[in-house]
Amino acid sequence: MGDLSGKTAIITGAASGIGYAGVEVFMQAGATIVAGDLQDEKGKALETRFGSDRVRYVHCDVTKTDDLKTLFATAEDAFGGVDILWNNAGHGGTPTGVEELDEDGFDQTVALLLKSVFVGTKLAVPYMKKRGGGSVINTSSISAVCAGYAPITYSVCKKGVAHFSKLAAAELSKHKIRVNAILPGFIATSIFGASLGLSREQADQMAALVEQQGGRMQPAGRTGTGKDIAEMAAFLASEKASFITGGEFLVDGGMTVGPRHSWDETDGGPLLDALGITPEQAEQMQLAMQAQDG
User: Keyword Lipid metabolism: yes or no (predicted)?
Assistant: First the structure.
């Protein structure tokens, strides 16, 4: 983790999940933080836990430009400026596919997951120019690079976030503003339950279940946590990453290395699946053939 002493960070979606872990990790690294979210009770609890001299909570709907402006104004008034912006707020988006496209849901998903990243970054520029530079971190997803991990609208927006980060890195380099994207994998947060329409309390409970059961899905052998993503973000925000910009960083426990059979020897793979043969049956056939040859 990098040293963030003397730096002020804005984190959106900060009251739960990855964003909450971000507040914890950035605090440990020495930063002061403006935390934006819609969950006021949880947000106020951040101030109580860490102290308003280190963390300020602001009610923020990132689809509203005025709310985003308030985040930056609060950071300057309370802590003297902005060095880091982590565009992290989000949800699972509209679940519909191409054929049954929900246009209102599409627009809402784009506004939350993609447009807010554009607007947040735009608003950060004058503040960071005053500081002689800064770091913008955008939360994308492995669904930006592979099909099958999330609904199509969500996935397209996250691809847009990743590519925007590269383009913005090029454009803003003249101001010494670095821009990078993190592509989380299967992380134990409430986003899964929320996508299913569960209450916040039920979604939080489901996150605990995901953490317990999700390790079988990836080579790392465990489910990712918010801290895994937050520590990458803290590194990218720090001077240790001063030579890194325009990057897309997979933090996914290896989910995207290849199909399951590439890392799990108990998985038969596509050929055995096509033949309807289990790995055990294949081994028995191999032994029988060796016996015949012998």
Answer: yes
Q: Which of 200, 112, 119 is nearest to 153 (CA)?
A: 112
Fold of 8-258: Rossmann fold (3.40.50)
Do the Cβ atoms of 248 and 259 come closer than 8 Å?
no
Tokens describing residue 9? 């960070």
What does 185-212 look like in DSSP terms, one character per residue?
A: -SB-STHHHHHTT--HHHHHHHHHHHHH
pLDDT tens track, the chain, 294 positions: 689 999 999 999 999 999 999 999 999 999 999 999 999 999 999 999 999 999 999 999 999 999 999 999 999 999 999 999 999 999 989 999 999 999 999 999 999 999 999 999 999 999 999 999 999 999 999 999 999 889 999 999 999 999 999 999 999 999 999 999 999 998 876 554 445 454 456 545 555 555 555 567 778 888 889 999 999 999 999 999 999 999 999 999 898 888 888 888 787 777 666 667 767 776 676 777 777 765
Local structure of residue 101 (DSSP, 8 states): -
Note if 20 is an active site residue.
no
Radius of gyration of the chain (CA): 22
Q: Which of 20, 127, 149, 154 is catalytic?
A: 154
Torsion of CA 161, 167, 168, 171, to 10 degrees: -170
Residues of the chain with CATH 3.40.50.720: 8-258
Select from 128, 146, 130, 132 the least CA-distant residue to 186.
146
